[in-house]
Amino acid sequence: MMKVGIIGLGLMGSSLAMAIKKYCPGIKTYGYDNNTENLDYAYQKKTITAKLNKENISQLDLLFLAVPVITTIEVVEEIMPYLNLERTLLTDLGSTKTYICKEIKQRFPALNFIGGHPMTGRETSGPKTADADLFCNKSYILIADQGRPVKEELLIEILEKIGAKIIYIDSEKHDDLVSLTSHLPHVIAIALMNEVIKYEKDFPEISQFMGQGFRDFTRIAASSPLIWKDIFLTNQEFILDKIDKIINALLSFKNSLLTGEEKELIKIMEAAKIKRSKLQEELWEETDNVI
Q1: Percent of the chain at pLDDT exceeding 70
Q2: Domain end: 137, 170, 203, which one?
Q3: Per-residue pLDDT tens for 53-83?
Q4: Nearest Cα to 101, choosing from 146, 148, 152, 154?
Q5: Domain ends where: 170, 190, 209?
Q6: Which tens digits make up the pLDDT trace of 149-169?
Q7: What secondary structure, in 3-state letters, does the chain show?
Q8: Mutual orientation of helices 236-258 and 225-234 as an angle, nearest 10°?
Q9: Which are the contacts of 156, defined by CB distance < 8 A and separation ≥ 6?
Q10: Are residues 201 and 152 in the same domain?
Q11: Which of 54, 55, 1 is nearest to 29 (CA)?
Q12: Separation between Cα atoms, residue 78 and residue 72, nearest integer Å
């Protein structure tokens, strides 16, 4: 029987455990979380088969790290003495890849590792909000910097069974792309919510003027600050570049507005409308609620 471990039993780790239980019934899952409430909840609900510890971690064929980006390296350092390096393939779920992949290559060269990033999630956290179908029909990025690791086929088999769409890319290109599609939207949503906080001091009734658009646009501002702090700091260069680009786009829009350039405003909005409609048709369902 294949044995899979998951360290970190929040939304992502618990969803992964539930997906494996649902779609890979022949696999035994071991889980650990330093939050005992999360661990006990996952075990009591049978999200995991058993609790992961220093004694059984060496028996794993595959180990997922579903923890914040910087914490990933700390966890690897802590578990290294107990891993069976010849047996276990290690992978992570972090949203930035260059930092993690470089740190592991430099500090733990003997580790059989491949970086991963499922392009899915929610603004909620914890095992109680987990979903076995969170990965279904979602892109799952694997990092091809160091070639294919030993036992990679075990990981591929699980990802395919839980419905993920596997994409290979190098870590730097990954971080560049997600800085625009994932990280920048969080920055903007956070900035907007903080502007609301300022306005609320003088206009406490402002919440009565918030519609569906505001709710949809700011949903991701409710994401975990601890998780996103690590993402921002470990992808700083690309995120700063995208902040500069969106500032320039806003200044261009502002200039068209100031000068009353009706045709230019329509041109900007029409281009955005066409692209968004195309993406909706090709990629998304209205019921999707993912990060």
Answers
A1: 96
A2: 170
A3: 999 999 999 999 999 999 999 999 999 999 9
A4: 146
A5: 170
A6: 767 999 999 999 999 999 999
A7: CCEEEEECCCHHHHHHHHHHHHHCCCCEEEEECCCHHHHHHHHHCCCCCEECCCCCHHHCCEEEECCCHHHHHHHHHHHHHHCCCCCCEEEECCCCCHHHHHHHHHHCCCCCEECEEECCCCCCCCHHHCCCCCCCCCEEEEECCCCCCCCHHHHHHHHHHCCCEEEEECHHHHHHHHHHHHHHHHHHHHHHHHHHHHHHHHCHHHHHHCCHHHHHHHHHHHCCHHHHHHHHHHCHHHHHHHHHHHHHHHHHHHHHHHCCCHHHHHHHHHHHHHHHHHHHHHCCCCCCCCC
A8: 90
A9: 166
A10: no
A11: 1
A12: 10
Q: Which of 32-41, 72-81, 115-124 has the lowest mean pLDDT?
A: 115-124
Is residue 197 pLDDT above 80, yes or no? yes
Is residue 3 within 8 A of residue 27, CB to CB? The reply is: yes
- The answer to whether residues 33 and 42 touch, using CB atoms and an 8 Å cutoff, is yes
∠ CA 30-174-248, nearest 5°, is 135
β-sheet bridge partners, residue 168: 142
User: What are the structure tokens assigned to 178, written together?
Assistant: 């997600």
Sequence letter at residue 124: T
| Per-residue model confidence (pLDDT) at position 150 | 65
pLDDT on residue 131:
96
Output the domain CATH number for residue 202: 1.10.3660.10
